[in-house]
Structures are given as C-alpha cells and as structure tokens.
Design goal:
The complex is a heterodimer of chains A (64) and B (245).
Chain A: H1 2-9, H2 14-32, H3 37-62
Helix pairs in contact in A: 2-3
Chain B: H1 2-32, H2 35-63, H3 66-92, H4 101-113, H5 125-149, H6 156-177, H7 186-208, H8 219-240
Helix pairs in contact in B: 1-2, 1-4, 1-5, 1-6, 1-7, 2-5, 3-5, 3-7, 3-8, 5-6, 7-8
Classes of the chains: A mainly alpha (64), B mainly alpha (245).
C-alpha cells in the first residue's frame, strides 16, 4: 500500500495538493473569466504550476 | 511537428527510465534466485497490464468526452512530471542521492540474498512475487505515461513509437551490454523527463479548459523553456545555500 500511495501521490503532499488547487483555480477562472481566459488562461496555468513547484521545493531551501 | 517530436522523445525517455528500473529488479531476482522464476513473475505482470490496457483503455476513450479527458490527462501528467522535476532539481543540486538503477539492482540483490532458498524443482514464489511487483509498479507508470502522451494532437503514434524505441534500447542494455546501467546519467535524464511531462501536463490541462495557446503546438516549447529556467534558478539557489551538517 505504501508503494501504491507513493506511486499515486509521490513523496510529498505539496504536489498533489498544489495540483488540485491549480485545477480548482483553473475551473473557477474558466467559468467566470470568459472574456480573457482563452487567450491568457494558459499563462495563468503555467504561473500557477511554477508556484506549486517552488512551494514543493521550499523545504529543501529551509534545510540549512 | 513540434508536438510529435516532443511526444516521441518524452515517451522514449520516460518509458526507458521506467523499464530500466523494472529491468534492475528482474536482473536482481534472476541472478540471485532463478532466471525462470524472475521471467515468470515479470511476464505475469506484463500480461496483467496488457489485459487492463485492452479492457479499460477503449472503454475510457469511448465514454469520456475530449475536454474532460484532456483535463484528467493533464492533471495526471502534472502529478508525475512535477514529482520527477522536484526530485531532479534536488538531485542536480546535490540535496538527494543520484538516481541509479545499478544501485537499486545492488540493493534488491542484497534483500533477496537474505531470503531462504527454495528446494530445486519447486516454484520460487517469493522471487516471482518480487519480479511481478517490480514490473507491475513500473509498468503502471509506463502505461499511464504512454496513454497520457498519446492523447496529444498526433494521437498514439508518437507515444507508441517512443515506447517501442525505449523497449529496444532497454533490452539492448539488459541483454547485450550489461554494464552501462552504472554509466547512464539517470538524474539528468529524469530531470529532462520531468520537464517534458510537466510541459505536456500544463498544455493538456489548458486545452481541456478551452485555452487557445499562442502559436498552437509550439506552446510546448515555451512552456518547457519556462520550467527549465525556473528549475535551473532553483538548482542554482540550492547549490549556493550551505547544507546543515
């Protein structure tokens, strides 16, 4: 079970939680920001993913 | 063309690395226990995976509309890709031991050598289970990556072609060359796969949510470029920071 959990969720909860938040934000913006989402939504997604990666790496920066 | 080449390279690299890990386990089982049981365990996993793919794949594709399917695939690729990318950054910054299938092979051998031997003529079930489990876990990742990349604009062709290249390469390494497991720059390759899978994840998630990417498929390149830049900045920052004793 431990290996299955590791396979699905990885080694840190920051990534699955972060990806879930990216998806939630994207769904909300897709539904509410129809005027600019098709043109600019991709860059918002990319920025959110960069934030998730940065947050997932934060513990390594703190380990000094 | 951009998507085709990136899909092919991404699938080939990702599948080759997963297969190498499975190969390391099967080689360890075969060399410490019996080759016959290692192959039986590995083949059992391959058959189970094939049955799941043939039974579940067409059902999923037929029932899910393209938009939600792209969202699901984008999320799956992001989960895989960002995890590979995170580990890649940590490895290249020296904060995590380098990825090595050869090391996994040695560790697996050590664990298997501690198990009681099975009398000749009897099935070696512990060895079969270890080979089965190793191939199944890595195989699930292979299936997910190929299926996810196969949802791209060029269909399954580049993903399957990349996977086929990977199978040939891995078999060549395992059967003909034996030693190169030690020399492969696995940490760098896994970092690269992390960038490719994450890029496809962002791209598909956007496509599934009606994003019109500027320059269409070429978007994959600037997404990958951004992730490369951000991760390199992270690596540089981690390298500069002193590590606690």
């Amino acid at each position: 079970m431990r290996e299955l959990r590791k396979l699905i969720l990885g080694e840190t909860v920051a990534l699955p939680v972060g990806v879930a938040l990216v998806l939630a934000c994207a769904l909300v913006l897709h539904a509410t920001a129809e005027s600019w989402w098709p043109e600019a939504g991709g860059f918002v997604l990319l920025a959110l993913v960069v934030v998730v990666l940065t947050v997932a790496l934060a513990p390594a920066h703190r380990r000094r | 063309m951009t998507a085709f080449v990136l899909t092919l390279c991404g699938a080939a690299l990702a599948v080759a690395l997963e297969l190498l890990e499975a190969l390391a386990i099967v080689l360890a089982v075969g060399s410490t226990r019996r080759w016959r049981d290692a192959v039986i365990g590995a083949l059992g996993a391959v058959v189970l995976l094939a049955v799941v793919v043939v039974a579940v794949g067409p059902l999923l594709l037929a029932r899910l509309p393209l938009g939600p399917l792209q969202v699901v695939i984008g999320v799956a690729l992001l989960l895989f890709g960002l995890e590979w990318l995170r580990k890649g950054v940590l490895r290249l910054a020296g904060r995590r031991s380098p990825s090595s299938s050869f090391q996994e092979y040695l560790e697996e051998r050590e664990a298997l050598e501690g198990m009681a031997p099975v009398p000749p003529g009897q099935a070696d079930w512990p060895a079969r289970v270890v080979a089965f489990k190793g191939v199944l876990l890595e195989g699930v990742e292979v299936v997910l990556i190929v299926a996810a990349l196969g949802a791209g604009p060029d269909g399954l062709a580049p993903a399957v072609a990349g996977a086929a290249v990977a199978v040939v390469l891995t078999l060549a390494i395992g059967v003909v060359l034996h030693r190169p497991l030690m020399r492969l720059p696995e940490s760098h390759l896994k970092y690269a796969v992390g960038i490719v899978l994450s890029s496809f994840g962002v791209f598909f998630l956007g496509e599934g949510l009606d994003v019109e990417w500027p320059l269409a498929d070429v978007a994959l390149l600037y997404i990958a470029g951004t992730l490369l830049l951000v991760s390199q900045v992270q690596i540089a920052a981690l390298v500069r920071e002193p590590v606690a004793a």
